[in-house]
Here is the input.
Amino acid sequence: MTAVKESAASRRAASDGSARGSSDGSSDGGGDNGGSPSTRRPLPWWKRLARDRAVLLLALPGMAVIVVFQYLALGGNVIAFQDYQPYLGVERSLWVGFENFQILFSGDPEFLAALRNTLIITLLQTVFVFPAPIILALLLHSLVSNRVRQWVQSILYLPHFLSWVIVVAVFQQILGGAGLINNFLRSHGWEPLDIIGNSDAFYALLTSQVIWKDTGWATILFLAVLAGIDKSLYEASAVDGASRWRQTWHITLPGMRPIIIMLLILKLGDSLSVGFEQLILQQQAVGLGVSDVLDTYVYNQGVLGGFWGVAAAVGLVKGLIGLVLVLVANKTAHAFGEEGVYRA
Amino acid sequence: MSTTTTVERSRTTGPNDRRRPRTRPVVDGVAMPGPLERTVKGVVLTIACALVILPFVGIISTSLATPEQVTEAGGFVLLPTGIDLSAYQMIFAGGVVTQALWISFLVTAIGTALSLALTTTLGWALSRKGAFGVRAMLLLVLISLLFNPGIIPSYLVVQRLGLLDTLWALIIPTSVSAFNVVVVRAFFVQLPNEVIDAARIDGATEWQLFWRIGLPLSKPVLAVVGLFYGVGYWNAFFNALLYMSDASKWPLQLVLRTYVVDGAQLGSQDLGIDAASLPPQTSLQMAILVVSIVPVLLVYPFLQRHFAKGMLTGAVKG
Here is the structure.
């Protein structure tokens, strides 16, 4: 996330490096005005290549994985414009232009349902899941005892490290037909509740699962930001007689604003990816009607259904929309004088 | 670290001189919370912690409880009256669960080693500012953080490389996390230049710099990154679902989905045993859950000690 910001930082750092290149000798001699300090002329590229071959060799295996599985894979999106047949491969499958994309505009009911479900879940996540760690972080930060805070943190971080399969299984065991809560209700002569497998309760279930799994973990960033707020601001305001609530409102929340905005922008870019694993695991229980989202639609249509071209088209549009949303949101943040995710 | 002082809230020379000055202890500039606030916070946090802990207690208890108690409870047991390990004996008897555990273990061990090797070498190379091509490569890594090629294209690449239905499909595509590369690089960048220069003057090669200086000085971050990779491989479900159609090569998460989430019945032949009577399905399911959670619980304290230090410096800085 901050990585993108870091690119700017590292560019600055890199030019710093070359500025003091004379003392760093051969290692930091690159950059625009690096190289031999006496002439200030850059080495020819083949000399730098020869000089830095060990560094390149070290980078090679890792870069290969990133290039193949990110950049080369990106090229696989061309099958969105093909009638892709696995036994023919990308080279020999027929090109069909935008035919696969027509499903987006022709109003295929399954696609529309997936789109609608995705948007509903995104909305729920923004309203309920996003603020939860902010509130929890404020709560944890306001604890006076460090020891209590560390214990609570240790416990609440834990669910993040469980797989979605385990989380879904745990929820089934607690809320399912033979689960803890229904056993309790039955043993007291009450009607059992149908929560798992009930399409009306499905979105509430999804939301509570995400909150259970990741709220604690997501506080880490906010707590780091809170710890970095200048203590003297609090002290000064306390002397001026500010109450705890006024301190929160006028010091703490403004201090958190940049990171909140940054995370919102990143979330926006991801807003059409609403949790493939969580949803695919529960489709059998509630049916596709409420649980099919764009990612599961792509998987079901492409990998399971064999409609490769259509699935790739949907995936491609989804990815492009996400990218555009990040770029627009970042620009908007700049327009409002915020730092955003990156500066370009 | 907190400094406790007392700030008098009302001015001593004000018109309210008669009133007893209200004093409240102040910690780091923030006044101590009142009793009401403290009670509310205590209740909220206790409930939150209970919501996390109680499911684990229930799962472990049910896996250990006697078959009679599980049957009588109709499923979930919160406090076992007796202890019965037969569910564990059966899932370790050599059937599908044992096999899946073994596969997950292999994938986690090989994957973590490979990931660490690739991530640290790439992170080190990217920290060598000014070297040929480093800036371009860093840009490629950073841009890859912004997009995801998509499910179908990823599948096609794995298929093309002939990795479908091999354990490598669970390892190689996720072996380098761009985010972790950036974190590791951030650590290498902040190593003191003097140490590296001194070693170079002594004639150290690039590999020696990396192996003798970079790695030993970055142990905390390597521990965290390694454990994150490890937990990732152990929990991997998406790749397994996508790339492993051969059920005999399923890792643990797919077995969990089939027999716990989807509730398929585990019979004697699945478990690889000759038993007239099996423990209740619930006991078996909870035992599988427990064995899939335990490794995470074992590394967790270690992870916890390091991640504040390791992750935050990498992530928050920027």
